[in-house]
Amino acid sequence: MVEKLEDLPDISKISANVTRILGQNPGKFTLQGTNTYVIGTQYPYVLVDPGEGKQEYLPLLASALDALSSNTNTLPEVSDIMISHWHSDHVGGLPSVLSLLQSRWQSRNPTTPLSSYLAPKLHKYPLPSDIAGPASTAHNKLPEIIESLPKGAFTPTPDGKPFHDLHDNQLFRASSPAIRVIHSPGHTLDSIALDIPDDHALYTADTVLGQGTAVFEDLRLYLQSLNKLLEYGKKAPEGYQTLYPAHGPIVKSGHELISTYIKHRLDREQQVLEVLRTKPTEGDAWTTWTIVKVLYASYPESLWIPASHSIDLHLKKLQDEGTVVFLGGEGVEKAWKLDCESPSS
């Protein structure tokens, strides 16, 4: 049964340090829409993700900034924009948001030369140079978005690149509220989480959602990241309790939900293995599709295609671990068997 989505306001002051603004792009995968976050107690602020690029988002961001403080000097309202990962619903709004911030500064400083504008820096964890998978396909609109960035509306790196690279365990901001970067690949290779110790909160981007379960590109990396985030919360001196996801409501019991995510994936993996230990229901070998038909028999058939992607990634992980053998085929007709020499089989 599909979980009913919780109603979320367009703008929420979720803590003394953080304001959430909905990206105005609700949908099957975005839930109530992409959550963007303004972090800070005074300007200049940090903006986490500029949303998908919906025009309806811009007046909401403007309203949220107006409510935070009355900036009457030449400082920018936003000094840094952090990108959680390359998906379009998280980066598509970058050109329009940069134009908005520049325009608001000009309105406050009509007699000051635009050259005095301290444009925001853009920050992102870099993708590998030999990137493969979805990020190497036409689904990745980031190169086009970069080309459309308004000149003078952002501060590039010394060598002219638009993004300043983030790295794992980077203390991005030391002053209150502090922000630490945690590389958490799996959903995408460049996914990050952000520890906000003043809030005892962890921004999880799309790695952990406020409702439902997340999708991922690489299950092995995804499980490693979930365990990394779980352990981080236990070891950090100001360990998080709450999760600020990129989709859905905030989560009060963060450790419990991440543990549930891990258990769900491991349980599903065992179910796949149990099916492979039985005689195929169709043909000479189990395929991704016939496994889905068994495991999702009680679900609407409309969910089987997206489920097949998840099952395929489970099988790929098991193949990489030497537990199953790929026999050939393409798409949902990929055929698989247990590796009889593997201890796990």
From TrEMBL:
SMART domains: Lactamase_B. The keyword Metal-binding applies. GO terms for molecular function: hydrolase activity; metal ion binding. It holds the Pfam family WHD_BLACT. Residues 33-247 form the Metallo-beta-lactamase domain. InterPro entries: LACTB2-like_MBL-fold, LACTB2_WH, Metallo-B-lactamas, RibonucZ/Hydroxyglut_hydro, Sec-metab_biosynth-thioest, WH-like_DNA-bd_sf. Keywords: Hydrolase, Metal-binding, Zinc. One of its GO terms (biological process) is secondary metabolite biosynthetic process. PANTHER family: ENDORIBONUCLEASE LACTB2. Belongs to the metallo-beta-lactamase superfamily. Glyoxalase II family. This is Metallo-beta-lactamase domain-containing protein. The lineage of its organism: Eukaryota, Fungi, Dikarya, Basidiomycota, Agaricomycotina.
